[in-house]
């Protein structure tokens, strides 16, 4: 029997932690041909999506796909993201979250039988902030 990926379980856990903490969960996604997102918002092959309850409708974080509908510039769009394309999930307000190896990144050797590298990511000063982390990008890292 093949061992199930830990990635969707970790995504759901951080999503719940964000919601329980009053934080806004965002996912960073590497876009490829299997990713259904508004292409006009894709930058350098990536998109960052707000997956908070008040920003999505019918959010389903499954073991293979994350699916929901959301409004972009007032227009409702259906979103479908393979879990394997999620580079990380983080809280918008603090940047704390988890990073994952994605299939569209260069291969990273992993210790043991794990297929996911997930490490807590904290800001250097470890203090809460308002707004996105400096530079407007989440502090997510894939550790080799």
Q: How would you characterize the overall build of this protein?
A:
The chain is mostly beta strands. It has one domain (7-136): SH3 type barrels (Roll). The chain is 10% helix and 30% strand. The chain is built from 1 helix and 8 strands. It has one helix spanning 7-20, and strands spanning 25-30, 46-50, 57-61, 65-72, 75-82, 86-91, 97-99, 120-121. Strands 2-1-6-7-8 form a 5-stranded antiparallel beta sheet. A hairpin with a 3-residue loop joins strand 3 and strand 4. The longest helix has 14 residues, at 7-20. The radius of gyration is 15 Å and the shape is globular. The two termini are 27 Å apart.
The dominant shape is: globular
**Radius of gyration computed on alpha carbons:** 15 Å
* Major sheet: 5 strands, antiparallel
User: What oligomeric assembly is this protein in?
Assistant: single chain
Number of strands: 8
Helix count from the secondary structure assignment = 1
CATH class label? Mainly Beta
Task: Work out the helicity level.
Answer: under 10%
**Overall pLDDT score:** 81
SSE class:
mainly beta
Strand neighbour order, sheet with most strands = 2-1-6-7-8
Low-confidence stretches: 104-134
Q: What gap, in angstroms, lies between the N and C termini?
A: 27 Å
Q: CATH architecture, please?
A: Roll
Q: How many domains make up the 3D coordinates? A: 1
Element order: H for helix, E for strand: HEEEEEEEE
- The name CATH uses for the topology is SH3 type barrels
CATH H-level homologous superfamily name? SspB-like
* Beta content: 25-35%
């Amino acid at each position: 029997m093949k061992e199930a990926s830990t990635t969707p379980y970790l995504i759901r856990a951080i999503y719940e932690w964000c919601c329980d903490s009053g934080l806004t969960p965002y996912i960073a996604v590497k876009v490829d041909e299997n990713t259904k997102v508004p292409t006009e918002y894709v930058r350098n092959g990536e998109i960052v999506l707000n997956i908070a309850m008040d920003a999505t409708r019918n959010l389903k974080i499954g073991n293979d796909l994350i699916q929901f509908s959301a409004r972009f510039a007032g227009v409702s769009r259906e979103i479908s993201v393979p879990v394997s394309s999620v580079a990380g999930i983080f809280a918008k307000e603090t940047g704390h979250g988890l990073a994952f190896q994605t299939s569209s990144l260069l291969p990273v050797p992993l210790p043991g039988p794990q297929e996911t590298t997930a490490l807590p990511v904290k800001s250097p000063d470890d203090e809460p902030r308002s707004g996105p982390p400096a530079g407007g990008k989440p502090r997510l890292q894939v550790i080799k």
